[in-house]
Automatic annotation (TrEMBL):
UniProt protein name: Rhomboid family intramembrane serine protease
This protein's UniProt keywords: Hydrolase, Membrane, Protease, Transmembrane, Transmembrane helix
Organism annotation: Gemmata algarum
Segments passing through the bilayer: 78-97, 121-143, 155-177, 183-202, 214-234, 240-262, 274-294
Pfam families on file: Rhomboid (PF01694)
Family named by the database record: Belongs to the peptidase S54 family.
Localization, UniProt: Membrane
Biological process annotations from GO: proteolysis
GO molecular function annotation: peptidase activity
Predominant cellular place of this UniProt entry's protein: membrane
Region (Disordered): 30-58
């Protein structure tokens, strides 16, 4: 009766191998023994013993060495579990499992330049565990499950965790630098980093890794690449900058973390892990700080829009309360008009000038900015006419101001629907 792997239930071939050919997990001695029907070696009349294993197989020796120095890929399994649990919680909260909105993703910690670079720095980390739909998380977790165990055994559990997190943060930093206006989420940057780390390992340990040991990664790697290329070309908000940033960061991590698969190499892992983790943290922190001090235009636009919104609230409150006091007769019209012209309008014009200088980020941002700037222009005209009407008692000016007010309110509805 044919034997099967106790880990993945795949049938075992009629040849000795200490590792399953499908999942590459080590087989217990009782299950890696000579399969039923294999030839016996006769040592003396009436006595037999199992044939010796093929110890000359470099791939089997390689996997045996990795399993000895890193027995279990625990970190890979924990990362997959965390991502799945968070996605399940997102779904349980009512978030769409197929195409969640940017607003929903932001509530769960997605990365977004105007938020991340405006004090919410933690989004650069949390975005790695938030996914944009079920296909997104299934693809990322499939590739992580296929690639992670090999790379984790090559780097060690702690080294793999360092490479994963630093790569993900590197992808977030690249996204904030090149695509600050995109709501970015997913483990893709970190997963690309694992492939980058593998490439870095191959550069340093090319003579220690049999090519056959990497054969199983081809399908998952090609599938992952095809998925990301397809969506990158067909979907407008795919963050290719995060993918590239994660890959490059992972490659650098792989170069630093790479050590021979020997007892001496394993003993040197903690130092390498600390250097890589601490160095990566410092570089990324400095990068985030510099971007916060000199943010991209989209971040400046968001900040300026918030300032304009606050100024708009104060201005309208000032006009409304002033009008009520004029109606009661406890405010002089000329003094009120001078306050509008000397205090309110100059500050409003300065805000509009600053916002107008930020045009050119993208066609979408320009369209939104144009509406806001048109609104601010109408408000300026309204308050100028209102001040003249209050000073002179001109009803025609008052009516013109009321018409400007209606046009401005109509633009507010358009701005809110964008």
């Amino acid at each position: 009766m044919a034997q099967s792997c106790p880990h993945c239930a795949a049938p075992l071939p009629d040849t000795w191998d200490a590792f399953c050919g499908s999942c590459r997990n080590p087989l217990p001695e009782t299950e890696a023994a000579q399969p039923t029907g294999a030839a016996d070696v006769v040592t003396e009349p009436g006595a037999t013993q199992p044939a010796e294993p093929h110890t000359d197989d470099p791939t089997a020796r390689f996997w045996q060495t990795l399993t000895e120095i890193t027995p279990r890929p625990t970190v890979t399994r924990v990362l997959v579990a965390i991502n799945l649990v968070i996605f399940g919680l997102m779904g349980a909260s009512g978030l769409s499992l197929n195409q969640p909105s940017p607003a929903e993703l932001l509530k769960w910690g997605a990365d977004f330049g105007p938020s991340t670079l405006n004090g919410e720095w933690w989004r650069a980390l949390t975005c790695m565990f938030v996914h944009i739909g079920i296909l997104h998380i299934l693809m990322n977790m499939w590739v992580l499950s296929a690639t992670g165990p090999l790379v984790e055994r090559m780097l060690g559990n702690a080294g793999f965790l360092v490479a994963y997190l630093v790569s993900g943060l590197g992808g977030s930093l690249a996204s904030l630098w090149l695509n600050p206006g995109v709501v970015s989420a997913g483990a893709s940057g970190a997963v690309f980093g694992i492939y980058g780390a593998l490439l870095g390992l191959l550069q340093r340990q090319r003579t220690s890794i049999p090519p056959a040991a990497l054969t199983g990664l081809k399908n998952s790697g090609l599938g992952f690449l095809a998925y990301n290329v397809f969506f990158g070309l067909t979907q407008p908000n795919i963050d290719l900058a995060a993918h590239a940033g994660g890959f490059v960061t992972g490659f650098l991590c792989g170069l630093v973390l790479s050590r021979p698969f020997t007892p001496a190499g394993v003993a040197a892992r903690p130092t390498r892990n600390f250097v890589t983790g601490f160095g990566g943290f410092v570089v990324i922190t400095v990068g985030l700080t510099l971007l916060s001090l000199a943010p991209p235009k989209i971040v400046l636009i968001d900040r300026e829009l918030e300032r304009c919104e606050e100024l708009d609230k104060r201005a309208r409150h000032f006009i409304r309360t002033g009008h009520e006091r004029l109606s009661r007769g406890d405010l002089d019209g000329k003094a009120f008009a001078e306050t509008i012209e000397r205090s309110l309008l100059p500050e409003w014009r300065e805000a509009r000038t600053r916002l107008a200088a930020l045009r050119g980020t993208s066609s979408h941002d320009d369209a939104h900015l144009t509406l806001v700037l048109d609104y601010m222009q109408l408000c300026e005209e309204e308050w100028t006419l209102y001040a003249e009407a209050v000073r002179t008692g001109d009803d025609r000016k008052a009516q013109e101001a009321a018409n400007k007010h209606k046009l401005a309110d109509a633009l507010v509805d358009k701005i809110r629907t964008r």
